[in-house]
Amino acid sequence: MKCAIIGHGKMGREIERILAERGHEVVLVIDENNTADLTAENLQTVDVAFEFTTPDTAAANVRTVLEAGGRVVCGTTGWLKELKAMEALAEERGGALFYASNFSIGVNIMFRINRRLAELMNPHAEYNVRIEETHHMWKKDAPSGTAITLAEGIIEGLDRKCSWVNNRKGKAEEIEIESHREGMVTGIHTITYASVDDQLTLTHNIINRRALALGAVVAGEYLADKSGVHTMDNLL
Predict the structure, then answer these.
(1) Is the pTM here over 0.85, yes or no?
(2) 15: closest CA among 66, 52, 57?
(3) For position 142, what pLDDT does the model report?
(4) Which residue in 8, 24, 135, 230 is the catalytic one?
(5) In whole angstroms, what is the distance from residue 218 CA to residue 223 CA?
(6) 84 catalytically annotated
(7) Who's near 197: CB < 8 A, 6+ residues apart?
(8) Domain ranges (residues) in the chain
(9) Architecture of domain 105-206
(10) Judging by beta carbons within 10 Å of its beta carbon (0-12, 13-18, 19+), is residue 124 exposed, middle or buried?
(11) 2, 10, 136, 139: the active-site residue
(12) pLDDT surpassing 70 at residue 170
């Protein structure tokens, strides 16, 4: 598999290492110093591009790959307002888009457990639910894409109208997300259902970013012969 890495920060470098370990070739690396090299011509030899940049640049990068008819695995969060348009572009141009708010296999299993747990808790209105998420001090978006995905899963499972709020005490019909940015934390996400009598907690802790990078590479291997829109649900 010939690959492009768009965003050569911590995640990009970890993805590069894992690609090499698994026998793949990186033929194009884009960072802030050579953004002009992200062109349709340079993407012609690329089987899959891995996009891990910033919320401000992700949509434009994904668009460039898809307009060239390419395949892109994107793990940048904070740009979801443009995701539907990118999904439509992938279908229109015959390219492929694989987006996930989190590429850890464990986190994506947690997403499924989370939805089922919300369904089981739905009849028990005496429990209030909240989400707490902690990431490293450089993460720009809050709440994290993972926390939002968890909140959306809870909303799907609960058969009543509710929404989520960030960093403030929610009302009865709101799911509170408490966001922390500190130290070198890769990612900790906790869901808590609490009543006056007891408490149920579900937690996932990413020990290092290799878990995220490996999941992204596995997603790229999955996407290498496909077109259209794909998610971790397809991969799992």
Answers:
(1) no
(2) 52
(3) 86
(4) 135
(5) 9
(6) no
(7) none
(8) 2-103+210-235, 105-206
(9) 2-Layer Sandwich (3.30)
(10) exposed
(11) 139
(12) no
